[in-house]
UniProtKB/TrEMBL annotation:
Listed EC numbers: 3.2.1.45
Protein's name according to its UniProt entry: Glucosylceramidase
InterPro entries: GH, GH30_C, Glyco_hydro_30, Glyco_hydro_30_TIM-barrel, Glyco_hydro_b
Taxonomic lineage: Eukaryota, Metazoa, Ecdysozoa, Nematoda, Chromadorea
Residues annotated as domain Glycosyl hydrolase family 30 TIM-barrel: 25-82
Gene source species: Oesophagostomum dentatum
Keywords: Glycosidase, Hydrolase, Lipid metabolism, Signal, Sphingolipid metabolism
Family stated for the protein in its record: Belongs to the glycosyl hydrolase 30 family.
Amino acid sequence: MRSCNAAVFTMRLSPPPAPLDRTLDLNNFVAGWVDWNICLDEKGGPTWVNNNLDSPIIVNAAADKFYKQPMFYAMGHLSKFIKPDSARISAKVTGKQSVLATAFTCQGRRTLVLLNKHDSSQDLLVTDSTTEHHIRLTVDPRCLVTVLWEKQQSYM
């Protein structure tokens, strides 16, 4: 194995928003994800079925203010790194059930998204199976981490 140069972007989510798990459903033939309500009031409405919920943006109309929730930033993080026309590729995490992973390739660039749902750091070895290049990294507790690297030629 050879080590590779990679850029690592980390976003602390304490706790990770529950819908974030669904964004990693992209491993299961999901083509995208839409948040039903991007803005709701402080009571989680309005809603026609009275199932008040949380949302990425909470609006306090009386004070003419809005509040960006962790899910807002998580959606922005994923949108920044998973580009249109990306193709999902295999991503497998062994021995770390608290770490979720999904990976993409687009124009020769690899994008790996990791979500550590655990309360402790997780040490990982990421290996690109097509080139055997690797990177070691520690994913902090309750963090969303994106790793980017260029697909390099295999020299085997």
